Amino acid sequence: MPKEHHSDGVKRITVSMPDETYQALDRLVQQRGFDNRSQAVSEMIHQHAAQHLEKIGTEVMAGTLTLVYDESKSALLRDLSRIFREHIAEVISSQHVLLEEDHVLEVILMQGPAKTLREIANKLITCKGVKTAQLTLTPHLIPPLHAKRARD
């Protein structure tokens, strides 16, 4: 087991990698503007862990679903609204942006079990008129919208 040092909540590890991977890491640090390699590696591990938790399906996660659709399709807006209402506990809010030629870009903020969020995304992408859908999840949660009141 590698020796870990504790300092201000940060743990230090040593990582060995092939030269090609090391060079790719340095390019990534430079191109994305990370302060250092540790920050880049930490972010990549965080993203990989989030993807793993997403695959498990039971973890509660926050996320965005980005849709592009053709609002001229007669039943589409009704179908989208019906799905949002069916999942009112998971759908927090949405941002609706009009694009050219009757197209709309909509970003939906959601939170719930990863499996449920994927099911919502699948329902939406199959609606006639939806062109694309992209679900992005994170294990970081949205704080409760309303604080619990103490009972008198």
Give a structural overview:
- The longest helix is centred in the N-terminal third of the chain and has 20 residues, at 37-56.
- Strand 1 (5-7) and strand 2 (10-12) form a beta hairpin.
- With 152 residues, this protein is of the alpha+beta class.
- The protein contains four helices and six strands, in the order ββααβαββαβ.
- The mean pLDDT is 86.
Helical region count?
Answer: 4
Topology-level CATH name of the largest domain: Alpha-Beta Plaits
CATH class of the largest domain: Alpha Beta
H/E series: EEHHEHEEHE
Q: Distance between the terminal alpha carbons, to the nearest Å?
A: 53 Å
Q: What's the helical proportion of residues?
A: 25-40%
Which architecture of the largest domain would the CATH scheme give at its second level? 2-Layer Sandwich
In CATH terms, the superfamily of the largest domain is ACT-like. Chain A, domain 2
Could you report the average pLDDT, rounded to the nearest whole number? 86
Count of structural domains? 2
Largest sheet: 4 strands, antiparallel
In terms of structural class, how would the helical and strand content be classed?
Answer: alpha+beta
Envelope shape: globular
Residue fraction in strands: 25-35%
Low-confidence stretches: none
- Record field, number of beta strands: 6
Strand order of the largest sheet: 4-5-3-6
Estimated radius of gyration: 21 Å
Can you give keywords for this protein?
single chain, alpha+beta, Alpha-Beta Plaits, 2 domains, two-stranded antiparallel sheet, 4 helices, 6 strands, globular
